[in-house]
Amino acid sequence: MKIILSRKGFDSQYGQIPSPILSDGTLLSLPIPSKMDPEVKFKDLHHGDLSYYDIIRMLSPRSSIKENHTCHLDPDIRSEVKERPMERVPSFGQEKAALRHLQNQNVGIGDVFLFFGWFRQTQYIDNRLVYTPNAPDLHVIYGYFQVGGIINRMADVPAWLKDHPHVKADRWNNPNVIFTASQRLSLCPGLPGAACFQFDNRLVLTKSGCKRSTWDLPDFFRGISISYNKNSWKEDCFVAASKGQEFVFEANDGAVEWIKNIISPEIVNSPHSIAFTMR
């Protein structure tokens, strides 16, 4: 089984602020702005009673993101952010160089993506959501996705997937696929094939007191080759590559146990997360 550590959501270039760790533990990955995807606006996505646009404006009043700005909702693994067809399955698209990298690594059905991104703890001060003062910037794993199907032709896209950003006709002019999630996670059959996590320290990649790309991986990873990450190991840490979306490795026994510990039922979101409302 291949595991893909997949970097997603707001970063220092796209969005330019950390995604929030909400007070209820929700890891709310903010999808990157995208003029290419007119179907979904930040104001169309909701967590409880607030839109993603509301949340962004509270966290960053000077954000360049405006109410009518659109975003790239991908991976699409949080079911409750907008209305869905009943037959909807979690999905994730990839294209161009990033897709070629996955193909060169022979990523396919049964392999597992662990989505991570830039996060910071938040809290309410004077009835306003703000970043917790002095909270560190962290790389955190916020969700997982086991590949159950691969759509690599526009003609094979089902009707329920028609709003996915990778369905657009011009994307098929380049290497482009849409992955759909398995019904169940093979490592933990009691769990769905894709889901988001509630915050837990075991999901934090960043080494305490360090920059977010300096990770505290278990020592057994020293014997594992991770794509895009040559010479990343230092004496007491792993410094993740600054470039590249998809870091692929073959899971050994240690990695499988590490992943099972991360994908634990008590921190996997139910299909409908706790509502998030103004207090």
Automatic annotation (TrEMBL):
Species annotation: Butyricimonas faecalis
Highest taxon in the source lineage: Bacteria
Nucleotide modification associated domain span: 2-249
Protein name: Nucleotide modification associated domain-containing protein
InterPro entries assigned to the protein according to its UniProt record, in alphabetical order: Nmad3
